[in-house]
Amino acid sequence: DLVRNEITAQATAALHLDPQVDTIFEIGGQDSKYICLQDGLVVDFTMNKVCAAGTGSFLEEQAEKLGIEIIGEFGDLARQSSQPSQLGDRCTVFMESDLVSCQNKGGRLEDLVAGLGYSIVHNYLHLVVGDRKVGQRIFFQGGVAANQAVVSAFEQVVGRPVTVPPHHDVTGAIGVALLAQKAAGDQPSRFQGFDLSQRRYTVETFICKGCENLCEINQVKFGQERQAFYGARCERYEEDQSKKLGLSLPNLLQEREELLLASLKRSQESQAPARPAPGQRAAHSGLGVGLRIGIPRALFFYEYLPFWGAFFGHLGCEVVVSEVTNQRLANLAVEHAATEICFPMKVAFAHLLSLQERELDYIFFPSVINYPQADQANPDQVAQTCPYIPTVPYLALAASNAPGQKVPLLRPILDYRWKRGYWQKALIEMGQKLGWPAKRIREAIAQGEAAQARFYQAAQTRGREVLDQLKPGERAIVLISRPYNGCDSGLNLGLFQKLKKMGILTLPMDFLPLEESTAPAPPKYNIYWLYGQKILQAAHYLKHQGRDRLYPRYLTNFGCGPDSFLMGFFKAELEGYPCLQIEVDEHNADAGLVTRCEAFLDSIEGYLSRQRPISSATPASPVPASRPTRSNGAPREIYIPYMSDSSYAVAAAFRAFGIPAQVMPESDQESLELGKQFALGKECLPFVLTLGDFLKVMRQPGFDPEKSSFFMPTSDGPCRFGMYYQRQRQIFTQQGYPDVPFISPNQGNSNGYFQEFNQFPSGFSRLAWQGIVAYELLEKLYRATRPYVADRPAIDQSYREGLQEISYGIVHQRVEPSLQEAIEQLSRFPLDASPHKPIIGIVGEIYLRSHRFGNQNLVETIEELGGEVWQSTTQEWILYVNSWLQLDSWERWDLPGFLRAYLKQKVQLRDADRLSRLLEGRLEHVHEPSTEDLLRSADPYLHRSCGTEAVVSLGRSAEFFREGASGIISVMPFTCMPGNVVNALFKRFKEDHENIPCLSLSYDGLEDTHIRTRLEAFIVQARQYQERKCRHSPGDSKRGR
């Protein structure tokens, strides 16, 4: 009779029971939903993405393991709890493990049960609701609403009553029955009776070979009656009525695909007579004509294939593009993924493997450092890729379980920065090695650029045609995405075709004529990712030019780093304009996608009935310029987040020049909860913790925004770090603090970095550097001494006193004598006669590897388990940044900037060397390796051009090995992109370094009992490695001191 989505059905039932309800929490056995209502209409909604931790099935499984009844007994026990167990709010695997750990530690059953109730609530609010509005009249629907423990936990957490309506477990059925009754009117029902389930039927499955999608089709037969099919991505097996709905609509995804391949076909046809047949090709004796070049149908090729098709075609090559993404490739992607990277990256490796099965001479898989600048009016703007893209060829070689590389890779480094033509030189160098003359290669480049321009022009022209043909009142969807996830039918779950069947026209984002927007320019966030820039431009266009005609659907992937921040800016730009976010990974099913699409169309109707005219005012700049002084000229108090003990050096250096500054208290559980409350849920842990630290300060009595500022450096990417202060500024504005400035030196380019520091006294930067070096030298001595000292509380106290001594020395600008005094005090502790402990080198994300709360006291745990720690320093990163600033200035033809960076580094190295000599004779390996040493050591695994901490971490790991470490730990936030790169490359690194134990640890702020278990096993391995090393080279294993 009627098919309607679950969102609309649940909302209809709730409104039937209470027309004033404004919020629905719905948690069923397998999924969960949030629905926001206004004036009786759905205006916002979302569903759980992949994780099942916030659903009833998980709760039932845990109740069964605890031996209790889910109905009645669960709630009764929870009410008896006085201290609910902390089980976190992550996925089922982690929450279940935490439950077992609490059991093993003797946790009371009542506390475990209450902890499960709170975990369900926190998981739902954090991962489903996120930053969406929770109203005053809340309905809790679904089967889980029968659990009084969960109901009570919701009321405690949200701070208001939560109503469980009658028949809460079947409200969806009630809602769709009401909708069917209304739609049917006086017409009879098509319902065939309750005995349908008793009729005999058969189900057969087959693979449809009608196209490259190779869909798995299920065929259901009820005796001799008409058969039914499901599982297809197109309407081939659907009923005629379904076909007719979208029959007249163009398939713009297919049209885009044809445009993408047009230049490839054109160049191949023009070169065909000159190309030998595949079976007749003789050795080309160094000549490139006739080569078969494979190109994966993935990642940046979904936009730039026209260029590469024309480029290689002009050189006389046959270009072979990999097959369309299908289930076989998806399975291959999961099987051979090198690490927990995003799904498009995994699929890219699958395309590479599929090309390895073809008869090819080479596979073209370049390292794309950044993209060509799309905005010619702003040629200096950075057009970064995400951190994964430059590493693709390196990760491809490291993919676990991958077969041997039968076909060699062409891996030029394509760097489009600085207008120096480095990418062209890389292509010329590659081409000359294959036998082409430089002139011919330059012609091929020109052919590629022309083909790419034709593709852009054709897409824009077609987009204008479609938009011009939209009739008044007609609406269309724009898929907001990157080309490689939104325009790959295997990655977008057939979204274009599904919407077409629903009668909805869908445009790829690059069909929008963004340059024709007549609205005021969007806020100038420093969005350094190229696709991030385009996504915000699209949001601005939709809000103004496409208003009430075009609606965005934002397609993202689990683990997408850029999107974890872009979504916040995107939603702010839309200002309440409807948008549906869809997250896809290898576990997604079609049914959930259809439900979301149908519900979104219903929510648009609700929006249109309540919309107000959009303000025409020009948006204010979201990030005010830093102001270290107040309006009356007095300096503002600078609040500095605690990263490591060296943070106190920066605060002391500010105070030395009369600028009030303090390091905020170390992060704690309150910081984490505050940060998570205002974050979107996908950002990296350092962002969440620093956000929470700032918010704690702002909520303190007496905080005066007119007298305060926050210290948060930034960058030009590609890592997410450069988004921190911009997103935090946005959140502060929403919380009523729009004018608290940030001091944000930009380490990504010489202009921003030096300009930001020029507002402070000339000696500040050098004094802060000296303080950081002094702090880290003292910590190095402390870490080399503490494991061998009997009275650890005493040496801990001595170390803290030493830090205070150095801080005093910085303020009074006598760093060296203070450091000398602190060293003498720390050196007075006698060492015991215990054997040398295995030395563990720690690398990774600069904040988390040093942050005690963030890494769950990693260093102290290693020492407790019998290890000695060598830690990467802040100096290392500062010197690396300085090297980059020199390069950036040189390439910009900025001689003054180059000289500043060059001289600054010379002074810094001299100061560090002078201070380090105070520890000579007391410690091994006092002096830090040079930046060039680190980059040279990393190059075999990841070329220095890829940048980010991944390069530095790999280089420092190699240096730790040479200095005698017995194990390497890489520390990273959960979903950290550079960290995942290091993790993927650790396998090859380990093989090249005597199988030294290597461990990657990721943190998301929640206590993970498995980390300690992994550390215990790792320390055993490190000790065994140390013993094996000592047997072969007795002099190699030394104490740090």
From TrEMBL:
Its cofactor is [4Fe-4S] cluster. Residues 613-631 have a biased composition (Low complexity). The keyword Iron-sulfur applies. The keyword Iron-sulfur applies. It comes from the Bacteria. Keywords: Iron, Iron-sulfur, Metal-binding. Residues 2-180 form the ATPase BadF/BadG/BcrA/BcrD type domain. One of its GO terms (molecular function) is metal ion binding. InterPro entries: ATPase_BadF, ATPase_NBD, CoA_activase_DUF2229, CoA_E_activase_dom, Dehydratase_Activator_Redct. Residues 292-511 form the DUF2229 domain. Residues 613-632 are annotated as: Disordered. NCBIfam families: CoA_E_activ (TIGR00241). This is CoA activase.
